[in-house]
UniProtKB/TrEMBL annotation:
<dbReference type="InterPro" id="IPR016161">
    <property type="entry name" value="Ald_DH/histidinol_DH"/>
</dbReference>
<dbReference type="InterPro" id="IPR015590">
    <property type="entry name" value="Aldehyde_DH_dom"/>
</dbReference>
<dbReference type="InterPro" id="IPR016162">
    <property type="entry name" value="Ald_DH_N"/>
</dbReference>
<dbReference type="Pfam" id="PF00171">
    <property type="entry name" value="Aldedh"/>
</dbReference>
<dbReference type="GO" id="GO:0004491">
    <property type="term" value="F:methylmalonate-semialdehyde dehydrogenase (acylating, NAD) activity"/>
</dbReference>
<keyword id="KW-0520">NAD</keyword>
<protein>
    <recommendedName>
        <fullName>methylmalonate-semialdehyde dehydrogenase (CoA acylating)</fullName>
        <ecNumber>1.2.1.27</ecNumber>
    </recommendedName>
</protein>
<dbReference type="InterPro" id="IPR016163">
    <property type="entry name" value="Ald_DH_C"/>
</dbReference>
<dbReference type="InterPro" id="IPR010061">
    <property type="entry name" value="MeMal-semiAld_DH"/>
</dbReference>
<feature type="domain" description="Aldehyde dehydrogenase">
    <location>
        <begin position="18"/>
        <end position="477"/>
    </location>
</feature>
<feature type="region of interest" description="Disordered">
    <location>
        <begin position="481"/>
        <end position="497"/>
    </location>
</feature>
<keyword id="KW-0560">Oxidoreductase</keyword>
<dbReference type="GO" id="GO:0006210">
    <property type="term" value="P:thymine catabolic process"/>
</dbReference>
<dbReference type="GO" id="GO:0006574">
    <property type="term" value="P:L-valine catabolic process"/>
</dbReference>
Amino acid sequence: MRTIDHLIVGQGGGGAGRTADVFDPNTGRVQASVTLGTAADLDRAVAAARGAQPGWAATNPQRRARVMFRFKELVEANMDELAHLLSSEHGKVIADAKGDIQRGLEVIEFCCGIPHVLKGEYTQGAGPGIDVYSMRQPLGIGAGITPFNFPAMIPLWMSGVAIATGNAFLLKPSERDPSVPVRLAELFLEAGLPQGILQVVHGDKEMVDAILDHAAIAAVSFVGSSDIAHYVYRRGVAAGKRVQAMGGAKNHGIVMPDADLDQVVADLSGAAFGSAGERCMALPVVVPVGDKTAEALREKLIPAIDALRVGVSTDAEAHYGPVVTAQHRQRIEQWIQTGVDEGAELVVDGRGFKLQGHEEGFFIGPSLFDRVTPAMSAYKEEIFGPVLQIVRAPDFETAVRLPSEHQYGNGVAIFTRNGHAAREFAARVNVGMVGINVPIPVPVAYHTFGGWKRSAFGDTNQHGMEGVKFWTKVKTVTQRWPDGAGAGSGGDLPRGS
Ligand code: NAD
């Protein structure tokens, strides 16, 4: 059995401690075992980070950027291997796995420009003979705690910006698909990153708590489910750290009566069911405005859902693969039952799906609910599976209110040909990321990613300039050089007027 161990400087092979199973969701079999670390493991990593960080911070930003350039080349050269490894632990299809890596690489591309981004502000003559300038300095040692659903992109969101800005970074990836984060860290070392600047510590709550309590860790970035995000935020902040903690989501897609329904259905096939719905920017709620729109949409959605192909993650024709674990599939099926019990109409039932030849794999068919209402818990909570819910809205005002009043506020989309309606919607909706005829409005790497309400705790987003702000602190210098200050040290310097 393969063992996935920490990547800590000077760490030997796996200890005798606790481990967790890593499955192949296609077969349902355990394919590896991951070490679950302790506070002592973390201490070793922190000691190495502490030793390495000052030298890295003193390395000029252009040289730090060169490591980013080389890393990007190495990841591109290893794309196929990484995508297969990712897919074999997560269950997303190869094209999605490549997308996961590619979106992370785009943050690395942003980091290649870090010298430019780190230029501070300068005011000459803020007072008589006084200049003021600011600089952004690294925090020291930062940590990232990441979810299972984007095992390449999210570790790169955090590690790329943290490292490029001169910090040492400790990554605690999801214990469900930990191999790709380790491979990425190895590639960073191959790209010339000094030992100790990026280390990977595996584990569960025990390791997360050790990170949150460790006095030498200045900042923690977390992405995962909301209850844990809130916990991480509270405990980390109580320990005096800078914390950003992204949580769950329940994104809505508003369909106006004038929308191009064929386009909407094509978009929903990807946005609601792609990656088996295991995306924080999935679109699991569709809100047609008016009953006529609802009926027309439903009529087009049913055959489109029937046509979705569920297959093993290496099947190039498959629309989506298995979900990550058997427990997660069970949880999704329970939510479907809850929806039925609460009175929603289950139009397509994906439960009980078996893939021939892979009966033990964690597969689940796509499901469609109609007549879901805001009072239902199956609407209020995140299902994180291939389940699409239709919530009918009588008018535009209701459609704006639904996502605005939902506990989550990660992403939202509106489908319309009416620019005024779209503009009003974008301005008024109480959600952090908005798509206009774009179903999954994940901002590009040089913008910034972050939701509102229970989708994010803390006040700084991931990547882009917000990421740079999170991983650095500002120092502002007010300087005055009075005439004669250098007396005796520079006789031939020009004298002041
Ligand atoms: P999760 O909350 O179970 O796990 C996230 C991380 O927290 C993992 O590293 C895990 O080891 C750790 N963890 C788990 N239980 C813990 C506990 N009791 N105490 C401390 N740490 C603990 O999330 P997941 O299932 O891996 O990922 C899916 C969730 O992540 C979904 O809710 C999804 O919406 C969310 N997500 C959000 C974003 C975003 O940017 N808002 C992006 C991706 C995923």
